[in-house]
Automatic annotation (TrEMBL):
This is FXI1E protein. It comes from the Eukaryota. PANTHER family: FORKHEAD BOX PROTEIN (PTHR11829), FORKHEAD BOX PROTEIN I3 (PTHR11829:SF310). Keywords: Developmental protein, DNA-binding, Nucleus, Transcription, Transcription regulation. The gene is Foxi1e_0. Residues 13-107 bind DNA. InterPro entries: Fork_head_dom (IPR001766), FOX_domain-containing (IPR050211), TF_fork_head_CS_1 (IPR018122), TF_fork_head_CS_2 (IPR030456), WH-like_DNA-bd_sf (IPR036388), WH_DNA-bd_sf (IPR036390).
Length: 109
């Protein structure tokens, strides 16, 4: 899939928050839903910075999914194979990522 909001695969830390990385993963998925492991896979495949080094970023992804109200946990359909629930973006939060704007927003002082 075309991932136009993503910068080229550069080795440096991407200019995106963890919630933006999650939103990108969900936006690019069929049905706009992914499991936790699919979100990890998306991030690692699209941002080399997260492929190497510390696994702490995975803890941050889990933390954001659990505490950010924009992300909703959706159970698997009955009889659907696999492990874990799906995650989706709450429709009320779609505007935060309008037009592929996933970059960090500067805080106003």
């Amino acid at each position: 899939p075309s991932l136009s909001p993503l910068s080229p695969l550069s080795p440096g830390r991407p200019p995106y928050s963890y919630s933006a990385l999650i939103a990108m993963a969900l936006h690019s998925a069929p049905g706009r839903r992914r499991t936790l492991s699919q979100i990890y896979q998306f991030v690692a495949e699209n941002f080399p910075f997260y492929r190497r080094g510390r696994p702490g970023w995975q803890n941050s992804i889990r933390h954001n999914l659990s505490l950010n109200e924009c992300f909703r946990k959706v159970p698997r359909d009955e009889g659907e194979p696999g492990k874990g629930s799906y995650w989706t973006l709450d429709p009320n939060c779609e505007k935060m990522f309008d037009n592929g704007n996933f970059r960090r927003r500067r805080r106003r002082r």
